[in-house]
Amino acid sequence: MQVTKLTTISFAVAAALAVSACGKKEEPAAEQAAGGAPAAETVKIGFAAPLTGPQAHYGEEYKNGVTLAIEDANAEKPTIGGKPVTFELDAQDDQADPKTATQLAQKFVDDKVVGIIGHFNSGCAIPASKIYSDAGIPMIAMATSPVFTAQGFKNTFRSMTSDTQQGSVMGKFVVDTLKAKKVVIVDDRTAYGQGLADEFEKAVKAAGGEVVKREFTNDKATDFAAILTSIKGVSPDVVFYGGADAQSAPMAKQMKRLGLKAPLISGEMTKTPTFLQLAGKEAEGSIASLAGLPLDQMPKGKDYEARYKARFKMDVATYSPYGYDATRALIQAMKDANSSDPKAYMPVLAKIKYSGVTSSNWTYDDKGDLKDGGITVYKVEGGQWKVMQTIGGGAAPAAPAAASAAQ
Hints:
It comes from Pseudogulbenkiania ferrooxidans 2002. By secondary structure, this protein is of the alpha/beta class. The protein folds into 2 domains: 41-160 and 296-350, Rossmann fold (3-Layer(aba) Sandwich); 164-291 and 375-391, Rossmann fold (3-Layer(aba) Sandwich), CATH 3.40.50. Helices cover 42% and strands 18% of the residues. It has a 7-stranded mixed β-sheet, sandwiched between helices. Helix 9 packs parallel to helix 10 and helix 12 crosses helix 13.
């Protein structure tokens, strides 16, 4: 009896629903927007860099460039596979720590991001790249260690020149241009710092210079009295440091206070406003290299500089233009492949021809290294980074740099 009653009620409800459906306009499907147009599909791009701690200023500026690129791409109302898409940034703090980086890498894989911009540090990018490779997710990293793209993975690409390119240019520069004969090298034992120092040492020796001492510290140190006292005893023409500005700045100050006449020479992690602030007047005469052209000479550098300052209320420091171009190149590969599926667009990314802020010829070799790899050398003069010379990368001939390392 109860079963019969429930069955009767069920038929009545079904009939009522049928009548209602016949007399009412069908609601838009969940995947459609109010006007009947398809709702935009969200395409999530991961980003990882140090956003806290002593290297946070690198990561924040890097992230700003990525953010601006995604905002610009979304403003263009992009479509992929005939459907509108909205790019979304999933930014995470890897704390410049390899263990944290690998944990984040697995999180990105689980969250089904379609690509990664980062990691910033080589020591983070290298272990994380294996996880992304296994998942088939492309990554465009700021990491400059040669190891990053030498692993044989198909998913690893760079935003800047490698340490092989930068170290070899700077090693030759100090011998041929600065006329340095006796060179001391110090590094922080990170994948970045040691890798850059190793390449620099090879180039110094190949150019006929002599490495009279090789020392190392760590990426947390701030007291270099013992190392510098030992270095002073060999009277070097230059002191090269492979590492970040949190160490190179106090090192520059302590070198001057100990009476070392040799200039401090370093890589792009020293060519920052933070180095100038931390080192103060003792920054004077320090030399650093940076990938590519100076900002005002980049193909779209002036426009980028103005838009960046308007958006973030600060000046461009070092890394944001490269983060911007990496993001735009990743997005262009998806659009060219007409797919956000990493398996579909990764081969297109490998053959990308992108004209961006930093380069009008952003292309990769078969390892994922940038082909257009010029280096600009800067020197601190009057408390500011001033261009000494731009080498390679299609740069116009520059005026001769200082003839002596001690100048």
